[in-house]
Amino acid sequence: MKNKTGNYRWTICALLFFGTTINYLDRQVLSLLHPVLEKEFGWTNSDYGTITAVFQLAYAFFMLLAGRFVDKLGVKKGYTIALIIWSIGAMIHAYAIEIGTVAANVLGVIGISGISVSVLGFIVARLVLGMGESANFPAAIKATAEYFPKKERALATGIFNSGSNIGAILAPLTVPWLAYHLGWQSSFIVIGALGFVWLIFWLYYYDTPLKQKRLSTEELQYIAHDTVYDKISEPYPEIKVNWLKLLTFRQTWAFTAGKFFTDGIWWFFLFWLPSYLTGQFNLTTTQITLPLTILYTMTMAGSIGGGWFPIYFINKGYSSYDGRMKAMFIIALFPLVVLLIQPFGYLSFWVPVILIGIGASAHQAWSANVYSTISDMFPKAAVASVAGIGGMAGGISGALMSVFVGRIFDHYKAIGDPKMGYTIVFTICALSYLLAWGIMKLLVPKMKIVRLEE
């Protein structure tokens, strides 16, 4: 069935793209300022690992709640509230010392001490940021399920998910400049305030498809023609979503495994690459702008290309899930190039930049598809909740990765062999996707749609 009746759904995709761009801009500011803040406050790798782990744990815990929150309130209200919280959280990083002083006094009253004021302040700010940002993907995935037929969802997901790459590209182009000319505090305030600009457009343009006056009847029919449970002329059926029941389905665990074994890799690429380039190649904060820009530009191709890739197999007659899994296996092979970083990285810093770029591109291609497996197999009423469960697993994975990386880097630095720490971490990055794919395939060998009312 070909659509020649309108393209308003792509306007919604554009909104989700810019929302995700701002989401990643906000979370990326700290990693770019890490070398500056490390010198100013005397942080160790373990200190920084703890700060980033708190963000990821908050992100993980609240993503579980955010999925349910978005399913209950709806995408428009849920996303609005989340964005306000995360934008405030991004901006209060500028006042981390003041916040840390208050937190230290409170902890002192109850007999807890030994944590520096700067670390405490950034922990609180990251906690608020993680709480708000946790709703971005459950809301965006649910919006995609509402506005796109199954065949187009991975492509739409790949496009809006590429906003994470644009955010990662824009951050090194803006944050160092703001920090140099206006001070590091200004970077958090200016970038954090962008969310409120986006909110104006979101409130004006977004509504559910059945209430959307800008959406033609023909386009609405096209959106719903291949979707289980959907009806064109009346609201979607009421289906009660129970977390415990969701946990009884192999499909839930397949998605959760896909997130748990791979999200920590992306968090590592996002939060530790600036420190890797400055620490291993003695590049300054401004010198890493070009390599990071090129690296994250590469990931855009992975995100959008990965979203398109399963369409090739679906057009050949595969079901949406089976075609997606076939594409994901091929995608999972690309991170293996990360194994070449340590043997050949000594040639130039461009070697790891390009190889990590390929691995990070593969992650974004993987991410576009693993998110789409939810709407392949679950009704729309459960999409955000399942996304929250898997997202929580991914956040926990990221937190564990941050703590592990911080500790292992400090350990090998202390014994005079910092490269060994990177060898271990890069090996994990290379092999995790094949492991995740194998577990997903074992749990759900063939497409099977979940019917919650049964």
TrEMBL record:
**CDD domains recorded for this chain?**
MFS_ExuT_GudP_like
**Which Gene3D superfamilies does the UniProt entry name for this protein?**
MFS general substrate transporter like domains
Q: Native species of this protein? A: Flavobacterium subsaxonicum WB 4.1-42 = DSM 21790
Q: Which GO cellular component terms are attached?
A: membrane
User: Could you tell me what this protein is called?
Assistant: Major facilitator transporter
Any single GO molecular-function term of the entry would be:
hexuronate transmembrane transporter activity
Q: Where in the cell is it found?
A: Membrane
PROSITE patterns given in the database record: MFS
Positions of transmembrane segments: 7-25, 48-66, 78-97, 103-129, 159-180, 186-206, 253-273, 293-315, 327-344, 350-371, 383-409, 421-444
Per UniProt, residues of the Major facilitator superfamily (MFS) profile domain are: 12-448
| A family per Pfam | MFS_1
User: What is the membrane topology noted in the UniProt record heading this document?
Assistant: Multi-pass membrane protein
Keyword match rRNA-binding: no
- Which keywords fit this entry according to its UniProt record? Membrane, Transmembrane, Transmembrane helix
